[in-house]
Amino acid sequence: MREWTREERYRVLQNPEEIRPLYDKIRHSVYRQLYHVQPVTGLSSDPNGFALHHGLWHLCYQWCPWGAVHGLKYWYHVTSPDLIHWTNEGIGLAPDRDYDNKGNHSGSGISVGDELYFYYTGNHRDENWVRTPWTCAAYLDEQGKICKLDEPLFGPRPDHSEHQRDPKVVWNAEKGKYYIFIGAQTLDMRGCVLVYESEKPLTGWRFAGELKVPGYEHFGGMWECPYITRIGGRDLLIFSPQYTKLPGRGESTNHNVYFIGRMDYDTLTFTPEGGYHFLDYGFDFYAAQGAANVADPDKAILMGWIGLPDNHYPTEEEDWEGSMTIPRELRIRDGRLWQTPINGIEVLRERELAADGNLPEAGEITVDVPAGDFELNLYTHADGSGGMRLHYNSLTRTVTIDRRGMEKRFNQHVFEVLDVPMDEPLKSIRVFIDRSSTEFFLNEGEKTFTTHSYPIAAEHHYTVTDGANLRLWAYSRSVTDEFVV
Fold first, then answer.
1. pLDDT confidence tier of residue 114, bands split at 50, 70 and 90
2. Is the dihedral of CA 4, 10, 14, 15 positive or negative?
3. What share of the chain has pLDDT > 70, as a percent?
4. How many CB atoms neighbour CB 210 within 10 A?
5. Global model pTM greater than 0.85
């Protein structure tokens, strides 16, 4: 694995032509995705600025252009009319001010009337590499360019550590206020969320207090990427706790969790209805963010980063890494969160394939699971050996996914086998495979499991338990892979 110097990681992109050779190299990779948003070059990580504005969906992602390394972060901008077909728009935000001289870090977006606003963390470092995180804003101009405000909205709290980032902006009509939720860390290294409020989107911001989540005052060492929304009269809080191990998650110290409960804006208290839940049970899912301006009060729309901080993946050898998940629709039923693929994704079904044990490079699988124990093995060799194994134990209602059988193994020290405890017997599976990712939706969204996967040419086969009704479609491309910077 390549060792990067600080100078290499934090190099400023002066001209798009500097990275064109890298694009020309990676565009021919067998692992470039067909229907998942991915970096034009280098590394993509957290989804940012996700919002619907005048009929067009806007999404940015954290982007380091030079390679598969976390260094100087830009926002790269993509758009979609339907959350299925995506177009590269180029750099959304560049670290070109003193207050963000070492990166434009994660944040959110919101459409207000004719304006689309973006909120992000400006990562400033001085000559001694001391960090100051500024909360900053930008807007979309008439030409579709994202333009920064001249000055940050506000600076960090001195009574918390330097880890204050990822502003999520929400509008609360009952209070007549905008709120910004910021992932943070206390001086004694506890994860938390800081809350700011204002009657206007770009001015008048003041500190309101620290979010209280009773029972979770000592839960992880940093809460990244907070997201809060209301679905069907219930409140949903999502965040990514770091620097802690959680039961059932191997050696990972980075997670994505959620609570269903009630948010009191008067006391800044989120009262959970029960314990935390994993947002996704897979090996590679993090920093999920929901879209702003979803008109339906009974659902939210969310995307996550297929990847984890500190983990490493095979395409790093090709100098690129990372993808976004397909968008998901979130609903709350019977006190539980359900996640389903974005409505209409079936339009990508190019053709139905014979269920003959062969996999396309990108497509969809549906399985009606028979009663009893069950197995679905993806990415096997032609003789059925190897691959990624999904096993269901009907006695314990546990789905186990094991990727140790694939030729390209990675992050072995973190986890290669994980369990998914099911609330109901497993009856159905829907799988979305792309050239370097696999997303499982179990029981029509009761639980989900996301993982990177890098099959070699001989690993495009599958086996399934007798009696299962399996259907398979090849997918067409829906994400442009053009060099737009």
1. very high
2. positive
3. 100
4. 16
5. yes
Tens of pLDDT, residues 7-65: 999 999 999 999 999 999 999 999 999 999 999 999 999 999 999 999 999 999 999 99
Token pair in block for residue 67: 């390679």
pLDDT, tens digit, 9 for 90 and up, residues 61-76: 999 999 999 999 999 9
Q: Is the pLDDT reported for residue 1 higher than 80?
A: no
Residue 147 falls within a domain, yes or no? no
Q: Does 376 fall in a domain?
A: yes
Average pLDDT for the chain: 97
Structure tokens at 184: 């943070």
Radius of gyration, CA atoms only, the chain:
22
Instruction: Pull the structure tokens for residue 139.
Output: 């807007």
CA end-to-end distance (rounded Å), the chain: 27
CATH number for the domain spanning 402: value is: 2.60.120.560
- In this structure, the strands spanning 349-353 and 469-475 are antiparallel
* Amino acid (1-letter code) at residue 298: D
Q: Look up the domain containing 425 and give its range.
A: 345-475
Q: Indicate whether 183 belongs to any domain.
A: no
Rounded CA-CA distance 220/218 in Å is: 6
> CA of 64: how far to CAs of 13, 45, 209, in Å?
10, 9, 33
Q: C-alpha distances in angstroms, 237 versus 79, 191, 263, 288?
A: 26, 14, 9, 11
| Euclidean distance between CA atoms 461 and 463, whole angstroms | 7
Q: How far apart are CA 196 and CA 157, in angstroms?
A: 11
The residues with which 181 forms a beta bridge, in sequence order, are 168, 195
Lookup result for tokens 């979130």 = 330
**Do residues 367 and 467 touch, judged by C-beta distance below 8 A?**
no
- Asked if residue 141 belongs to a domain, the reply is no
Neighbouring CB atoms inside 10 A of 88's CB total 18
Catalytic positions, written as ranges: 46
Q: Specify the pLDDT at position 461.
A: 98
| Of residues 113, 269, 120, the one with CA closest to residue 180 | 120
Q: How many domains does the chain have?
A: 1
